[in-house]
Automatic annotation (TrEMBL):
Protein name (database record): Uncharacterized protein
Lineage, top ranks: Bacteria, Bacillati, Actinomycetota, Actinomycetes, Kitasatosporales
Keywords, alphabetical: WD repeat
Keyword 4Fe-4S: no
InterPro entries: GH (IPR017853), Glyco_hydro_b (IPR013780), Quino_amine_DH_bsu (IPR011044), WD40/YVTN_repeat-like_dom_sf (IPR015943), WD40_rpt (IPR001680)
Ranges of the WD repeats in the UniProt entry: 512-546
Amino acid sequence: MTSPVEAPAAQLRSQAERAMEEYIPQLAHSRPHLVRLAECLSLAAGVERPLLRRARLRFLPRSAAGLEAELWFSPLVEAASEHSLLLDPAAASVLRRRLARRPRQFVQDVRDMTVEAHLGAQPVARWFEDLLWADLFPATSTPEHIGEQLRRVLRAVTATGHAGDETGRWALHYVPRLPSGVRRYDDAWRIQVASCERLGLAPPQDAFARPPGTTASARALVQRDLPVGVLARSDGVVLSRPPVDGARTVTVPGVRTARVEAASVLAPRSAPVLLELAEGQSVHLPFAVVQRLSASGEPLLGIAHAGGAQEVAVASGAVAEGVRYAVLLGDGTIVLHGDDGGERGRVPGGATARGSLSLSTEGAALAWTEEGGAITYEVASGQRQLHGPARLVRFPADRGAGLVRLSFEDGGLLLPRRRVVLDIGLHEDRPVRALWLSADEEWMVLVKESGELWTYGPGLEEWSLDSNVVAVAGSPDGAFLVWAHASGKVYERFSGDTGTTSTDYGTTPWQVTSLAVSTDGQRIAAVGGDSRLMLWERASGSSVPRELRLGFCADRVFALPDGEWAVSGTGGPVELTMDDGRQYVITPDTEALSDPADVPAWLRGEVIAEVRAGRDPVTFVGLAETMASIRAAGVTCLAIGPITPFVRRDVAGIPRDDEIPDSLGDFGGFVSLLMSAHHHGVRVIVDVDLAVSQGADATVPVGWILDSMRQWLDYDADGLRLLDGHGLPVDVLTEVRHLLEGYEDRVLIGMRTTEPPSTAVADFGGTEPNGAACHVVVPDVLGGFGTGVSYSAGLETALVGGPQPLMATARPEPQWGHVLSDGLGPEQQAWALRILLCLPGCPVVPLSLLLSQDPEVAAMLELRREHLALSRGDVDQQDLLPADLLTLVRRHGDETVLCVANLGTVRVSAHVHPRDLRGLGEARLVDLLDGTVVPRSDDGSASLSVEGGAVRWYALLPIPRPLGPGE
């Protein structure tokens, strides 16, 4: 039963109303007729010109017509149009109280005039005026009468169909204008909540205390079950409306918006994140996770941050009043957590990027780099101190020793305790990958960007221990050092009274991303980006580690006191909570994050940039030194070669320098290239030329070919591309496939440019175009991009035979792609590249073309990664636009992108209606390349204008609902 909530009248009056209580008496003293006229209109939902004229002539017959104009433009009016005005809500409330003090018959006459004038008005407007009258004399209006009036509107708002939407819009206009004595009723609040829910709006702020569950019950009055797709990923979850293929479908109560609260199961104390999904929308929600494990591997506590994190730092010593964990979020904010996991404060981010986060041993201070300098922060006082230039900072074990800073401006590594700057031969473009210090700072280890591992002893003696190192750690006393090789090998070097010994702990199942040594120096821990934590007991000397399963993907591990560990990473199970209390737990498959029968996930929709010997004047070393600019151009995958397989019978090992093209450099340079590429997030595929092994020496055993390929994979190449390999026997290809199965996340690409796709698949042992699963077939397009075509003849001639043959071979599966012919001129290549980027699969293009410093190409490469419709979606050629405009529609799940290529040389304008793209009537097109919304015509169609030779991408997005009156 609806019952009013009592509240002191003084607390209910808004600041604006109190201001009007002071202003209107002053105005009445100087302009009494103006205030009297306004009083006579204060019972109306809206004041039309005829009503204004009728009120003046009836209640102020001796006044002039100018009084109407004076009220029209007075401060008592909130808004006025050509035909009507709306009194200010605060002024109307004061005016009604003044009206109530006049003779009752006069007030009744005002009411009768208002009712007569609005007999044909909206039912909600008449209902509003009835409630204003009921509130005017509370003694004569029972709560039951007011409650019945509110219930009438609530029933109208919660009715199905368009009429309920329209009623809700008017209700949201009128309810906030009701007197506080009416708005305090629970049904008045339910009307607002239900109206907002069905219109996809957030409810307004409520000024009254309500019984628990009032808001939720009001939403439930209009909600229905909406299907939402939930896809668990290694870093979090993706929610979509409608559900994308392969996603789990859950039902969420809602009308236009599905409202879901998401929280990490691994961190029960973390606050949930509210997600609101409209139709045709998807949301990717990553989670950064930090978990504390006991010495036996049992989870003790968890911390989670929605949106992901850039870095995590952990204090390794005994923490009393300090913080144990520091998490650097994507916006630059640093969140501090105590030993119990509770949040202890935040360091707000700024406009500049932060990095190299470090916590002191006892957690009393943290440090980071910002704008090329080092900053320290005292947790207790919040005091900051700016230090000298730095690219990397570390707190030593002794807090009073000062901050260890690595910078190029100071000439190297600053060691405050030793009062020395160590020149370690670094340069601006070759930073340090990892730095480790013993507790007494007598021993220091550096892993340079090239992967070289260098140690420095008490006298700063220098030793080089290994190359291709990806992670390093050591015992606190500096007695031994452990490091991980890029191949997955983990080694230890121990220095004691009896000399130096080395231990090989075997090979991990992945490339190690982080190592740690327990505080007592008895155990070694390693993680590698999946859900496993590897632990070695040093006393046992066994190379078989103990494997602990985690509930998320871990990439960093830290040693804590008493043999405990802190592990950080992404993902983990996520709990979804609906408005009606329903809950779902979404758990990613940590056992197999990708289908082993499919190509690696990183290759799906990837653009492969190839560097060919003899064509591109570049070396391995040159590529390594320019990797930052390569990545900045949007390139994330390189194909290097061709390399002749090593097939000599008398020598085993890696290919010799004389077997590598002189234009590419030596094998050591290739190692540097791999290290630099992986540091910048670029994959490297090696082109293997099989023509020599098949022609010059057809009797070469398969084992020799496989040994050569194994060398490249052991040196961390991300895959192999077989050139001229379509003549390999099926048994040889089978052996090659088995070879790659022993390496995680590697790809085998078959290059075929002379036969139809079906023949290329058959060459790799497949029977159907979609049946080749463990490699990528890259067929040329028969009748597609031609050679030797003159650009002056028109851009349309670059597509020999038109776009139809090109579309006939385009496939959305990741094992397909297209290549550019070498005979195209520079302008044709640049244009043809844009066409290839519109198609599904893995385009293969020269690196030099992608490095042309064309910002639009770089933007297109990034857009392909951001929009799955452009990289993994299907493709449909449409005849929606003039013939000069090649029109392709790419769809993936709930995402639709329109690709338009102008095949001519002059600008073409055209119209396309969004409903023709996906059946949506109310939608808009947004130009992905510049972010602008395409103008719409009166009929709702989008007006496109594409320059000659240009390619544009337009995303289909819903149109925001226009606001109704008073919203």
